[in-house]
């Protein structure tokens, strides 16, 4: 007779006993736990709100300290006092000032400080008048002239003109001229633009363009180009005296002065620009330009000097290509004006093997030259 109860083995009976024991243990453990209750408002405040308030307070204190520190760093009186000191710390202050002026997001008030710019300008005038030849004094004048060019206010322009015209050291004069160009570019880039259109500035640049020192003439040519372009943007036409001087400088005995004039004339879309820019592709002219790069210290090796010269040559070629493309997009220039450029670029590409021996020409520069030549040929054909 069959039973209605299924057969059980020893394992099934053991499993049943184990389940019963586990159930009894679970019941007794649950009875020992405290009842679950929702957290109180005080507990939530302790857990979340109070730490948040502490963090906010710490951040606020840090912000106040940082703001006060920045104000201290930007105190014109303290900065100028440090620059006027007679110890080595003034060079560190000059470096820090230059660094701060290059960080307008962090030091927005510094770059537009009329007070600081005016005080540094007064100090530069004093130093130029003294004209001390010691290396430390010359270096400080170079630092401060550079700093005046980094401002976005024109208070330092008279001091820069004074240094460019009258400082007894050529390197100071060159740096002051470069600072004028930087300042002119910065003022023209403001919104709204505030181009440096100043009669004293124009007269000074025209005087410096006739300087006997070729490096001074080259720096001045670059500055004239920047100022002329800024004046053209304001009145739709550059000052004719500056443009005329650029045309003259495009035939200057010094190669770099000619190259700077060519690039400036191209930015202005001048009819004399295509022939002037064409020379920037000439192998012999490029060689003459880079030959001026000399070892400044005895530890400069021939290898590093060769790299320096190749870098300068490639920068000139890059500028020539940009100038060529700018001219190509100038509708006022007739098609026949591009014949010198076409011939010069073809000669440059044929001379690549020779140029590569003197230093590598980047592949991307060669590719751009080939593309630009194709466009120049189309422009010369009236297309």
TrEMBL record:
InterPro entries: ARM-like (IPR011989), ARM-type_fold (IPR016024)
Keyword check for ATP-binding: no
Keyword terms, alphabetized: Membrane, Transmembrane, Transmembrane helix
UniProt name for this protein: HEAT repeat domain-containing protein
Pfam family, one: HEAT_2
Domain of life: Bacteria
Transmembrane segments: 43-65
Organism field: Lacipirellula parvula
């Amino acid at each position: 007779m069959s039973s209605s109860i299924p057969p059980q083995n020893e394992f099934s009976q053991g499993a049943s006993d184990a389940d019963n024991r586990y159930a009894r243990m679970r019941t007794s453990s649950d009875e020992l736990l405290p009842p679950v209750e929702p957290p109180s408002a005080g507990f939530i405040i302790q857990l979340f709100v109070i730490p948040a308030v502490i963090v906010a307070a710490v951040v606020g204190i840090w912000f106040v300290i940082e703001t006060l520190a920045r104000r201290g760093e930007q105190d014109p009186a303290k900065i100028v006092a440090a620059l006027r000191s007679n110890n080595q710390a003034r060079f560190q202050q000059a470096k820090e000032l230059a660094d701060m002026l290059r960080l307008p997001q962090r030091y927005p008030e510094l770059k537009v400080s009329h007070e600081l710019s005016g005080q540094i300008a007064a100090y530069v005038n004093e130093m130029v008048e003294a004209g001390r030849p010691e290396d430390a004094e010359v270096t400080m004048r170079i630092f401060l002239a550079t700093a005046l060019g980094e401002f976005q206010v024109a208070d330092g322009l008279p001091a820069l003109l004074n240094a460019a015209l009258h400082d007894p050291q050529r390197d100071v004069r060159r740096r002051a001229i470069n600072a004028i160009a930087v300042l002119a570019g910065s003022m023209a880039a403001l919104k709204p633009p505030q181009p440096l259109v100043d009669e004293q500035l124009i007269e000074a640049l025209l005087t410096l363009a006739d300087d006997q020192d070729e490096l001074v003439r080259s720096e001045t040519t670059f500055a004239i180009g920047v100022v002329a372009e800024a004046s053209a943007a304001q009145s739709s036409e550059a000052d004719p005296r500056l443009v005329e001087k650029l045309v003259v400088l495009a035939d200057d005995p010094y190669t770099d002065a000619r190259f700077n004039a060519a690039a400036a004339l191209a930015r202005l879309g001048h009819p004399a620009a295509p022939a002037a820019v064409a020379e920037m592709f000439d192998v012999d002219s490029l060689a003459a330009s880079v030959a001026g790069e000399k070892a400044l210290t005895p530890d400069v090796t021939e290898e590093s000097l060769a790299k320096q010269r190749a870098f300068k040559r490639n920068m000139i070629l890059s500028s020539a290509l940009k100038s060529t493309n700018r001219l190509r997009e100038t509708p006022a220039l007739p098609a026949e004006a591009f014949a010198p450029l076409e011939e010069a670029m073809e000669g440059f590409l044929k001379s690549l093997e020779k140029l590569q021996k003197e230093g590598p020409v980047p592949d991307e520069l060669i590719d751009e030259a080939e593309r630009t030549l194709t466009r120049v040929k189309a422009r010369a054909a009236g297309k």
